Amino acid sequence: MAKTGMERLEELRKEIFKCIHCKACRFAYSNEPDKDGIGEFAGKQGTILYEGMVDACPAGIEYGWEAFWNAGKMWIARSILSGDLEFSEEVRDVFLPCITCGQCSAQCENKVPTVDIIESLRAACLEAGIPMIDKHEVVDKLVKERNNPYGGKAAERFKWAKDAGLEKFIDNKGAKIAYYVGCTASYRQVEVAIATAKLFELLGMNFTLVDDEVCCGSPFFRIGAVDTAQELMRKNLEAFKNVEMVYFSCAGCYRTFTIDYPKWMAEGEKLPFKTQHAFELVARLVQQEKIKFKPNKELKGKVVTYHDPCHTGRHFAIDMEQEMIKESTNLIVDHRAIDKAIEAWYEVPRIILRKLEEDVGLVFKEMYRIKIDSMCCGAGGGVRAGYPEFSLRTASLRCDEANAVGADILTTECPFCWRNLSDANEMYEHGMKVLGILQMITEYNLLEILNKPTEKDFLTLSIREEIGHLPKK
Amino acid sequence: MSYKLCTEKDFEAMIGIVGKEFATNNKAITAGYLAKAIMGLESQIPDIVVRPKYVEEIRKILIYCSAEKIAVSPISGGLSGGFACPTIRPGGVVLDLGRMKRIIEIDEDNRFCVIEPGVTNGELWAYMHKNHPDWAPPIPDGAPPAATVMGDAIDRGFSLYTSSVGPQGDNFMCGEIVFPNGDVVRTGSWALPFAKPFYKYGLGPDMWSFLMGSQGSFGVITKAAVKIYPHPKHKTVVVWGMSNPYDMQDLTLEVGKKEFGISHHTVMVQGGNYQLVMTRWPKDKVPHDYEFYEGMGISPWWMNWEIWAQEESELNHVIETIDKQAEDFKKRAKDPDALKKQELHPKQIASRMKKPNKIAIPYSFWEAGFLFITWYTPWNECAHFCDMYTKAAEKHGLPPTIWVASIERCRQAICMPIIGFDSTKQSDFERVQDLNRETTEYALKQGWLNYRPDPYIHIQAYYQAGMYWKYLRAFKKLVDPNMIMHPGRLALP
Ligand SMILES: Cc1cc2nc3c(=O)[nH]c(=O)nc-3n(C[C@H](O)[C@H](O)[C@H](O)COP(=O)(O)OP(=O)(O)OC[C@H]3O[C@@H](n4cnc5c(N)ncnc54)[C@H](O)[C@@H]3O)c2cc1C
Ligand code: SF4
Ligand code: SF4
């Protein structure tokens, strides 16, 4: 029996009471005061000094009041638990405009699981009878009717595959590998879906697009509509039960299947398949020298930067950390191994980017806030649907940062980040091209296979699974 | 003394002054300003929070609140734990000064910078690192980066230069302050319309010192000039370990008393016991036996000297002098065999020299919450303090973690027990308060002074200093006739 939001909040009581209101969580690089940066840059959203620690909680930056920065929210949670505050629409309106990006959690030395707390607050608030905001009600209704929050027809979920000549992969019986496409890539950023499926095809992967695939539930777990989310989870678990490995191209779906589902499944129940993101496979093949990239005139000399999606970056890094803390019996000794694992995780997409730089001739240049200190794109946590202006201003702040390093191309590996960054890029005239990494590889025809990968390669454990454990004593 | 409960009319008045966007009485937002942690456990949710940007707005707010007898608590960064801490009900108005965040001037020749209240330690550090790399502001070493330079000075904090040059309050030259009676006063040389803030003692007796103090200022400080200091390239940390606090105290005093050319270079002189390392981690995830820490090369007690020098030869001279003094001290030490130099890894040195850092934040990781209960003692009594406090903490079943640092070359000590406890449990709260009460009684008998006092338990100090308190009260009456600022502090009202 799944727990209610209030029960989860109660379970997190001790974590909530660990918060000392130190506010370190408002900054990226909160522990690197001397970090050399790139100086001041006047962007579309104002001037920022990219040196040392920099404000990086989008909600706090947008709304200013202490309650909107993470520290304030932790004390709201505490006030709810101690009875000083009751759920109300006013309370809801403070913790809903939060992107659940996890930047705060990553900075916290007391390891307060801020995103879990915020999501539990949201769930408890709904349970207390406080209605969703109108915009969330609309997507909740749509997903209940159509199994996706965009209102797309079920029959058209894989229209992109048919249009791109990839029909043979739909319901490809007997395949041990599935590609879970997700709603954004199915109905909106079809470029990402096409690029990923084509890449798999080029690599020789025998995969299936599962006909009964429905929304992963991510937005609903995030906004506290956990009943809706669990219903979707059940449908997906049933639909994918016969495959061994599920691949993703969306950071949010990957996170939801891998981190959320096991938390919401019955005790003792396990995910019936392994999961990994397509970029993990590509990085591994690069490392094993099974693939390389072709030089490209159009891309040569272009400055490419990379945005770490919160869902593949921080959420996995923090989950990995929490799991390793659980495993540890002596953290004074083990914390270095944890830091190393997190660093290794963030290197995965960079293996591809550096290889692209080497082979293709593009220039890979990092933004100031990267990896665990990366600034969010503004799309997650139900914010794009619920608070579109805030969401786009945040994306534009991120585009400013890419502009600050002179990027021609802003890459990422999540269609949801892609959408938001791309919209902000257009709306605020940042003048870049926004592309998924895998999309860039297929669209520019960069892939060169040196040594054809085997099914074993495709079924191999994800890099995340390999690095996310303490060394055996 | 009674205060008025804020009404809708008062809220409208605040909106009239700062605009709708910057005043709120939404309980969901005001609750975000709570902090029952670190230095105060009594914080209340304020009735109204206002975020002014201009001096004139603050003036109008104070005049209004004074006329209406509404309590006012200003916060710059809001980290002191006692912040937003109107300890009496109703909570009144919190002035969140975070929007006043200009770094107005950096003057390298006269060696000061002028800042507004909302400038955080992290921001000023980054700004100077980029634009004035040979100079550094006296930010607190251990306070989190979001604490402000101003808030720390008003709290009379412990800055990275305090062991060398004195308390943080002494680094402040001149200020601009708005009193609840509506006057805006500039202190020191700034009292003159055309003077730079270059001299603290301007026209007669110094008024600025009256305004500094963790017990709560008498008005709202809106600008201050802060000394800046050289930030030389040659830096290191020297550590000596020992078995007991008395050897730590006496060796450090011998070094401190050298003054010229030696202890002036030791910008941070801080130490403590091995539990400082242990209690930064979860209680069930670290060894509790000393043997483990001994294996890591950590002595039961130790002292760090962080040394800054313009030349390498100067740096080496200070290191050699400390080492020589320590060797010589073995003849007088209680436990000479335990006196050992600790060799640090370059990463450990770098981490100790980081400013501002997050070193003190994870004491909540031990259980769920911690309290700093801080006292000043003459330096040569700090070992007695440590001895007393560690025994008292153990008696109450709390970890005996203690941090000690020198102020002004061992003229005074700041002694800070860090009490890790489970703040979800009422019984733990009570244990901590019992420990605090008991040790306060003992400490006051020794003539020690509490720092950033708890407004209830440490109030005992004022009862013992009646004449001083009489004049504090009189001065407060002058500038704050209705006693609206920082209610509950200074044993007032
Ligand atoms: C983990 C941790 C470590 C710490 N380590 C250190 C350390 O090494 N050294 C040190 O000195 N401190 C340390 N502190 C304490 C903390 O740094 C100080 O309390 C903090 O610097 C205060 O800054 P603030 O901006 O948060 O002040 P606030 O909390 O905003 O204010 C402090 C006090 O001053 C009053 N005040 C604030 N602004 C004004 C104003 N403009 N006019 C009038 N009154 C005002 C407030 O009402 C309050 O009483 C530490 C705290 C924590 C949590
Ligand atoms: S969540 Fe962590 S970093 Fe943020 S204020 Fe609380 S203790 Fe500090
Ligand atoms: S999750 Fe992101 S937006 Fe939400 S409080 Fe934390 S840093 Fe801010």
Q: Would you write up a description of this structure?
A:
The complex is a heterodimer of chains A (473) and B (493). By secondary structure, chain A is of the alpha/beta class. Chain A folds into three domains: 5-127, Fumarate Reductase Iron-sulfur Protein, Chain B, domain 2, CATH 1.10.1060; 150-288 and 452-461, Rossmann fold (3-Layer(aba) Sandwich); 291-449, 3-Layer(aba) Sandwich (Rossmann fold). Helices cover 49% and strands 10% of the residues of chain A. Chain A contains 23 helices and 14 strands. Chain A has helices spanning 5-11, 13-16, 58-63, 70-81, 89-95, 103-107, 114-127, 134-146, 159-163, 183-188, 190-203, 218-223, 226-239, 251-264, 278-287, 314-327, 331-360, 383-386, 388-404, 415-427, 437-443, 455-459, 463-467, and strands spanning 27-28, 39-43, 46-50, 54-55, 177-180, 207-208, 245-248, 274-277, 291-293, 303-306, 363-364, 409-412, 433-436, 447-449. In chain A, helix 1 runs antiparallel to helix 7 (114-127) and helix 15 packs across helix 17. The longest helix of chain A has 30 residues, at 331-360. In chain A, 56% of the residues are buried. Chain B is of the alpha+beta class. Chain B folds into three domains: 8-98, Uridine Diphospho-n-acetylenolpyruvylglucosamine Reductase, domain 2, CATH 3.30.43.10; 103-230, Uridine Diphospho-n-acetylenolpyruvylglucosamine Reductase, domain 3 (2-Layer Sandwich); 234-450, Vanillyl-alcohol Oxidase, Chain A, domain 3 (3-Layer(aba) Sandwich), CATH 3.40.462. The longest helix of chain B is centred in the C-terminal third of the chain and has 21 residues, at 426-446. The model of chain B has no long low-confidence stretch (mean pLDDT 92). The chains are: A alpha/beta (473), B alpha+beta (493). At the A-B interface, helix 2, helix 4 and helix 5 of A face helix 2 and helix 4 of B. One iron/sulfur cluster (SF4) binds next to helix 3, helix 4, helix 6 and helix 7 of chain A.
